[in-house]
Amino acid sequence: MPELPEVEVVRLGLAPAVTGATISGVEVFDTRALTRHGGDASDFEARLRGRRMLGAARRGKFLWMPLAPPAGHAAGAGADEALVAHLGMSGQLLLRAPGADDGRHLRVRVGLEHPEHGELRVDFVDQRTFGSLAIDELVPTSDGAAGGYGAAAPLVPSQVAHISRDPLDEAFDDAAFAARLARKHTAIKRVLLDQTVLSGVGNIYADEALWAARIHPETAASALSTRAVGRLLAQVRAVFEKALVEGGTSFDAQYVNVNGEAGYFAHSLNAYGRGGEPCPRCTTVITRVPFGGRSSHFCPRCQRKK
DNA sequence: GGAATAACCTGGATGC
DNA sequence: TGCATCCAGGTTATTC
Predict the structure, then answer these.
(1) Are strands A81-86 and A132-140 parallel, antiparallel or unpaired?
(2) Residue A8 annotated among the catalytic residues of the structure
């Protein structure tokens, strides 16, 4: 499932291929992939064709490619729009050669002409159709810092503006995060999944970070000490960084990088998906409990509820 | 305004 | 073998 590390792996793969590339063609095969786009498929195709991509940026699980203004606009003007992508649960952005097989679940195809790499294809493939692409205007960031990872300008797509920065972002404010936690009386896991508080964390990394920080997922956020909040943030960052090194977490081929390769972090999971197995730290059986229509995995001994 | 829940969606796994 | 049901989960709209 694409969470921050998986999206960052995709961004790192896309950046060299899309930066400086001109969009030569767009084909929408399934309009459900445009649920976040303000117009219809023909609008999407017409507004993209001929535009030049200026890079690849990310905040949390959102990815965007800033677009140079269309021909006819003032030369040298900066990007004011971006192609925004969210992978949802099963979305993939795949770099393919022009004649490559489409495979299954191809929703949108974007043809590129790159000055160095020549003709390329970016395919948006999505089995469960929770992911989407959209063209969105760029708006100034509220704190004046760069929009996100890989973004040079203090701009962010309007539909991403309400998302908090992620903990790997240099502009992430630890003190502000702790202050927000102190005002939240709901379960800490629910807060970790709230992208307006902290972005990039999904069910897998929430369970892993809480296990590493020895915090019970149902502990009220406001009940955490300053020390515990610091420990949790450190573990979120550590888990993200380790997953990045290992190429992300792949389950049943739902996540692959731009070249279609799976990540290896699933082998390093300590709690998520290990219900009924011994805790790697104390050998107590990992518990799996329903959590808001999903599952939480934790060690009842290492992560005691206070 | 904060918190909780339902809905969206597809395909693999499981049970009968 | 075939069918029905369950499960996975990110985001958003709705409800309380």
Answers:
(1) antiparallel
(2) no
Q: What is the pLDDT of residues A217-247, one digit of tens each?
A: 999 999 999 999 999 999 999 999 999 988 7
Catalytic option among A32, A128, A294, A305: A294
Backbone angles phi and psi of A63, in degrees to 5:
-125, 140
- Domain of A71? 4-160
Q: At A27, which helix (H) or strand (E)?
A: strand A22-28
Report the CATH number at residue A146: 3.20.190.10
Cβ of residue A306 lies below 7 Å from strand B: no
Do A207 and A96 reside in the same domain of the chain?
Answer: no
Q: What are phi and psi of A205, to 5 degrees?
A: -75, -25
Neighbours of A267 (CB within 10 A): 9
Q: Is the CB of A267 under 7 A from strand B?
A: no
pLDDT band at A252, cuts 50/70/90?
A: low
Domain match, A203 and A100 both? no
Final residue belonging to a domain, choices A160, A183, A217: A160
Please tell me the total count of domains within chain A: 2
Chain centroid to Cα A104, Å, comes to 22
pTM of the model: 0.94
| Residue A127 beta carbon within 7 A of nucleic strand C | no
For chain A residues 113-142, those near strand B by a CB cutoff of 7 A are: 127-130
The answer to whether A296 CB is within 7 Å of strand C is no
Domain end point (choices A138, A160, A182)? A160
Instruction: Kindly state whether residues A87 and A178 are assigned to the same domain.
Output: no
